[in-house]
Structure formats: structure tokens, C-alpha cells
Amino acid sequence: MIGYKQVDLLTLEECFDILTCQLGHPLYDDVKIRFAELVSDLSFKKSYDFLKQHNNCKESTFYQLITSRYDKLSAECREQEGYGFRKCQTILDYERFIKQYESMAPFYNAVYINDARLRISELQKAKDIEALNTIRRKKRTRWIVAGSVIVVLLTVLSLSYKPVWNLEAEDVFFDKEGGTKEIRITTNADQGAIEVNAPQNPWLDVKTQGKRITLNAARNEVPERSCTIDIITYPTFFGEKLYSRKVTKTVIVSQESGFGGDSKPNQVPTSASNNSIDLAQLTMENKNNNTSSDSYDAIADIVEKCRKLSESNDYSMVYQLYAPKVARYYNSYDTTVDYVYECYKKYDKKFGVNERHSKIRWESLKYEKTSDGYSVTYVMDYSIDRNDKSKYSNFVLEMHLCLDENYRITSVYEVQLDKY
To answer: Which residues pair with 208 in a beta bridge?
Structure first.
């Protein structure tokens, strides 16, 4: 028998058995009160476990009492779940929420867990997008900074670098009386970046002041003479000359012959009315008027070979006519016979030429003895058949040659007298 004092020690299971199986128990009402107290203290999990265990007693009033307790706890839990879900803001908050309510999954049908998982997915996606945008912003910032640095550097370099362009200077011609003339150098280069290289000539005094070159020529009492002056400009970088990028302009200074009349030393008599004077006749006349007929014969032979070379496609004669070292070949300086040979080979293709023809005005041939050979000048008619018919194809050229003691060409350039 259960005493009054022992009723307070009864468990929920014991009370439920008495109430459902022992309806005539003398302490039935006391047990019923004890059962009600125990039900009111039931936890969510215990009420769920009890209902599951006594599932076959669903019709019992006391089973319904525990069911009511379970429904009440479920409602409270669901309310807490909703409140907890609404408080979540970060991925970590939602993860904690899922962990808390997943532990009740066996006896509780959570409503917001799936919503929490979906929210985590959305936040993670947004986080990834933000991370990607952050990376892009950082890259864009780096590119902007790098671009700004490059612009600043290029600006500094451009302000520090001064290139050279528009280097211009005109050739100078003196009459036989000589005198003073001035060459004005047109260039954007600073005065300190300009150099003038002029040969030491007894007949020409050269003085340089800034971008002006003053020439003083003495009276000429010999045949026509000439020399070249090299004007060299250098681009500067932070005020320092860039020697490897120099720009050179060569100016020709010439002076007409100091002899008048038809009899000039070392010159064939002129016949303006007959440009086809027989070479043998001119050679004989020159021999009668010159003390060194052998020199004239050799020079005339060189001139004739140069004429034939200008019309021929066999350039091997270059090695017979030119010295190994060539001081000047038109606008090229300090070069070699190999360079001259290559220039002859490339001439037709470079200028679009099909045929070349030349004719020497032998009456213009003249020469003078120099310290290292001979200086020779003559006039030549030069015509070319070129692809571009809009360009000039006929020229009157005054040729200037320097020969060594062995009558080999060491320098050659031309002065264009006419073109049509």
C-alpha cells in the first residue's frame, strides 16, 4: 500500500499506471494531484518521450493532459525559435541557431531551420560577391596607382628629355673675292648641345657663336675649291648629351675659281656650244696646257669608269675605283668600299629605278694636286627611268671627287645644279 507520505515520491510513470489501471485506489485523488504537479514540471523532451512511450493510451484523459503539456511547450519553443531566427544577422548567428534547434529534431518539428540554411546560402553568396568586388576594387586601385605613377614618370622623363628635330642649315657659296658670310642653324636643340666640326683650311676661317657660324673666305687665286662643315646636335636628358642619338647636318662651303678667261690651271678649255667634245681631243688639249699629262690621263680614266659604273649592273668595278677606306660617300662618312658596293646594289630598288644613263661634260673636268692626292670636279648629265613618273628623272650634277696617290676614290659627293 502507498501511504500519504509516499504519494509525493511517486514518479510520472507510477502515477499514470495508478490512474489508468487502478481506478478504485484509495489514494486515487491524491495521485491525480501528484500527477498534475509532475505534468506541469515536464520538460519538452520528457513529455515527448512519455507520449511516444505510451502511444497506445491516446484515449486516456491523463495522456491528453500530457499531450496538452507537450503542445504548450511546442508552441513556446516555436515562438522562441521564431524570435531567435529574427535575431540572426550573420552567417555565424544562423549556424548557431541551426545547431541549437537541430538537437531537438527527434521530438520537435522546427519551422525556421530550412529558412536559416537558405539565409546562410544567400549571405555566403553575397559575401563571395562582396569579396570579389573587394578584390576588383583593390586591383582597380592598384592599376590606378600604377597608372598615375607611370604618368608622373613619363611626364618627368618627357620634361627632362629634349629631342632634336628640324636641324637645317644652308650651303654657302663665295665668289672669288671671298668675304664674310653667316650660316644660321635652325634647330630646337640647346646651344650647349650643338657642335661644329670644320676642317683647318688656310682659305676659310670659321667662328661659331651659339646658333650662328661666321665664315671668312680669303680671295681665291686657284681653281674652285670647297670643304664641308659638320653641324652636330645632341638630344639631352636631364641636361646630359645623348651621344648615341646625335643628328648631323653637313654644309658644303665652296668658292668659285680665282682664274678668269678660258685658260684655267688643270682645267680643260670650256666650249658651251658643244657638249659632245671628243674625249681624245680634250685629252690632247689638256696635255698641251698641263705639265702633268699622266695625271690627267689617269683622272680622265677614273671619271670615265665612274660613268660606266653608274650605268652598269656589274658593281665589281667599285673595288677597283674606291680605296678601302672612304672618308665620304655622299651623306655617309668614315665608311668603307664594302659599304659603297652595297649602296650600288641597293640603289635601283631603293629609288625605283629601271635604267640609268649618264654623260660627262668633259669641258668641265678640272683637278688640282693636294697633299694626299687629287681633288677633281666635273659636270655630268644624269637621267634615270624610274617607276614613279611624277618625280624628277633628269639631273645636272657637279661631281666632287678626292683621289689618293694611287688614283683611288677616297671621297665623293655631288652638288645638284639643275633638275627637270
So the answer is: 213
Residues 339 and 326: beta-carbon distance below 8 Å: yes
Contact present, 81 and 114 (Cβ < 8 Å): no
- Mean of the per-residue pLDDT values of the chain: 82
C-beta of residue 115 within 8 angstroms of C-beta of residue 85: yes
Q: Is the dihedral of CA 386, 391, 393, 397 positive or negative?
A: negative
Question: Among all chains, which residue has been given the C-alpha cell 518521450?
Answer: 49
Please name each of the domains of the chain with its CATH number: 42-161 (no CATH), 172-255 (2.60.40), 279-419 (3.10.450.50)
Q: Tell me the per-residue pLDDT of 287-329, one tens digit each, with 9 for 90 and over.
A: 444 435 678 889 999 999 999 999 998 899 999 999 999 999 9
Pairing of strands 325-329, 332-336: antiparallel
| Assessment of whether the complete model's pTM goes beyond 0.70 | no
Reference 362, options 345, 381, 340; nearest CA is: 381
d(CA 247, CA 163): 10
Q: Are 373 and 298 in contact (CB under 8 A)?
A: no
Query: Cα 92 to the chain's mean position, in Å?
Result: 51
**366: its cell numbers:** 678640272
CA-based angle 369:370:371, to the nearest 5?
Answer: 135
The yes-or-no verdict on residue 265 having pLDDT over 50 is no
